[in-house]
């Protein structure tokens, strides 16, 4: 589940969640419970979306024995997906196309988009997910 949480962040932002050129800093950040999972810079990359942050924290549990099962993650995803589709921080309705555009906008930050019909592979996968 840990890697799925990291991958989700990477798909949304195009950046590694825990990237640093200093191996020791990387090791400490990933293994020490006293280290924050998300820096403010990383939270800004996902627009401080509380639903996404909560969902990724649910998957990014440092202790292997306490990580959720894939079944539980899928159930949680369905719940988070419903929240993302139906609301925004202000409680306004956020339809499918707005959520899609918001997530694609997060993903496109600094990445080249595909000019292929149907959009990028990320966009095609996102359309299937939502």
Characterization of this structure:
This protein is mostly helical. The chain has one domain (about 1-130). Helix content is about 60%, strand content about 0%. The protein contains seven helices and no strands. The protein has helices at about 1-15, 25-30, 40-45, 50-60, 70-85, 95-105, 120-130. α1 runs antiparallel to α4 (about 50-60), α1 (about 1-15) crosses α6 and α4 (about 50-60) runs antiparallel to α5 (about 70-85). The chain is globular and about 40 Å long.
> Taking all residues together, what is the mean pLDDT?
76
Total DSSP E strands? 0
Shape: globular
Give the helix proportion (percent range).
55-70%
Structural class from helices and strands?
Answer: mainly alpha
The radius of gyration computed from the alpha-carbon positions, rounded to a whole number of angstroms, is: 15 Å
Low-confidence segments, given as residue ranges, are 89-100, 106-117
Give the ordered list of helices and strands.
Answer: HHHHHHH
Q: What's the total helix number? A: 7
How far is the first residue's CA from the last residue's CA?
21 Å
Number of domains: 1
Main beta-sheet strand count, sense and barrel state:
none
The fraction of residues assigned to DSSP E strands is under 5%
């Amino acid at each position: 589940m840990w890697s799925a949480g990291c991958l989700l962040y990477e798909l949304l932002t195009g950046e590694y969640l825990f990237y640093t050129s200093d191996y020791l800093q990387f090791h400490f950040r990933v293994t020490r419970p006293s280290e924050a999972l998300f820096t403010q810079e990383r939270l800004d990359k996902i627009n401080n979306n509380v639903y996404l942050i909560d969902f990724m924290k649910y998957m990014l549990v440092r202790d292997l024995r306490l990580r959720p099962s894939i079944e539980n993650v899928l159930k949680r995803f369905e719940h988070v997906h419903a929240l993302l589709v139906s609301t925004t921080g202000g409680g306004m309705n956020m339809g499918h196309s707005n959520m899609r555009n918001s997530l694609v906008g997060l993903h496109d930050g600094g990445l080249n988009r595909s000019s292929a019909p149907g959009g990028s592979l990320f966009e095609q996968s996102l359309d299937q997910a939502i």
